[in-house]
Amino acid sequence: MRTLLAAFMMFTRLPLWRWVEVDKSYYKGILHYWCIVGFLTGTVTWGVLWLASQVLPLLPSCILAVAARLLLTGALHEDGLADFFDGFGGGHDRESRLRIMKDSHIGSYGVIGLIVYFMLYVSLLYSLPSGCLAASIIAADVLSKLITAAMIDTLPYARTEETSKTKVLYSRLNYIRFNLITAGCAAILFFIGASFWGLIPALAMSIGLRFYFKRKLNGYTGDCCGAAVLFTETAFYIGTLIACQL
Description:
Elements: H1 2-11, H2 34-53, H3 58-73, H4 76-90, H5 94-102, H6 108-127, H7 133-152, H8 175-191, H9 199-217, H10 222-245
Helix pairs in contact: 2-3, 2-7, 3-6, 4-5, 4-6, 4-10, 6-10, 7-9, 7-10, 9-10
């Protein structure tokens, strides 16, 4: 239970620390419950979009929904994405990429990458058919985190625990627990009518990123995790949108 609370405390800005204290050791296993956090962030994203669309056109409603998710998560993954673009855009070898990604300042690659990402994200939300919008948003959030957790479990950490930004090194997945959580998530998504066609490009994106991280860093970093979630989520949206139009 405390590991689940640790996952919500790590990946959202919910002030749970005011009521419960969680030891650092519990954060090592939070990848098991990352996808459960996705149900919260996905539901909030869709909820704000739906509420805003009752009084506003769809486009500004989509922008407000994205802003709500950023507030809820503290832009954690987007910060990782910006660092990823800076590190891999400006670095010429493993050491320089790791050094640039650790720098808290954002560079031109990060700025441009975030602009393109947010334009694409909002346009995909805007383009999805209204009938599958809620299920697609929740499924994209949940499954991107689920896939990324499984993907990074196959890679070593590229830094040491002492030099990581969060000072936490994730433990390897317990696949009995992880598979049970995966089955539960899949059942809930099926119940709410989510389409799983987006899984094909999402899995392809995850596999491609896995080999890219291995080749360029010989492992992953926290920034890679954030970037992988958003890349995989975007691929899921693209696959879902294509399936809806066929």
